[in-house]
User: What shape does this take?
Amino acid sequence: MAKGNHKKIRGRPHNLLEHYQPIDGVVDEMVDVSGNPRPVWKDFIEALEELGPEKLAQRFARADQYLRDAGVYYRVYDKAGANEREWPLAHVPLLIEEQEWAAISAGLVQRAELFE
Assistant: This one.
C-alpha cells in the first residue's frame, strides 16, 4: 500500500473491511468519506463475507492458479531482453453504479458508431 496518511474505517460495518484503510486524499470507489461501503458494494461485500476467510482465500488461490495454468502473462522489456511475468489481476472487481455505467455505455456506443 502507498505510504501516507491512512484512516481506519469507523466502527465495524463489515468484518471483511475491519482492517481496510483508505488512503487520504485518494477517491475510494468502495467506501464513502465516512468509511461506509457505497451502496453498489454492500451486496458484494456481504457475499464475500458469507464465504468466510478460508473459502475466499481458496477461491482467490484457484483464480491465480487458473491464470498460471492458462499461461496468462505479460512481457517486460529491458536491456537484457524480454522477461515474462505473471499477470497480477485483482481478485475484487471494480463495481460501477448503474447510472454511471449508462453514461459509459452511451459513450462506447457513440464511439463504435463513429468507427463504422
Notes: The beta strands are 73-78, 81-86. Residues 37-115 form one domain.
